[in-house]
Amino acid sequence: MSADQDLTPATEREFGALLQMYQVAGALDAIAPSASLLSKNLKFYTEFAFYLGEKAGYRVAIEFCDLLVKKLSDADRKRNIGVLLIVEAQFFDELGIGMSRDLFALEAAEAFVRSGQYRAAQTALKLVAA
After folding, report:
1. pTM of the predicted model, to two decimals?
2. Other beta carbons within 10 Å of 71
3. Among the listed residues 103, 110, 102, 92, the one whose alpha carbon sits nearest the alpha carbon of residue 128
4. Each residue of 72-129: pLDDT tens digit?
5. Distance CA 54, CA 124 (A)
6. Contact in structure between 47 and 87 (CB atoms under 8 Å)
7. Residue 14: CA count within 13 A, CB half-sphere
């Protein structure tokens, strides 16, 4: 998912409820109480990050992604860090902060190479300004 994709009405309602819970509690535990739940539903939470970026601002979404990284188990973090770094790079791009976008994209590419995901690394490198 990206910032410009449309959500189904059901997903919009679910994300809206999550946004309220997250804003009231101010903590990831309010919407992802365990690392195993987070790991099983990481795609859902990265899609929520895009929703959060649109509704609450990209800096809030970047902070949310940082919390996701911290909450993941070590094994899940090694496997999924590249995806979360790419999401953060896209948020920095939306904010117009090219240097941070490039750094996060390069880190994502490195993480993908370490895990043998070479096509994903190539995709990450495409985010880096020439």
Report:
1. 0.85
2. 19
3. 102
4. 888 888 888 999 999 999 999 999 999 999 999 999 999 999 999 999 999 999 999 7
5. 22
6. no
7. 11
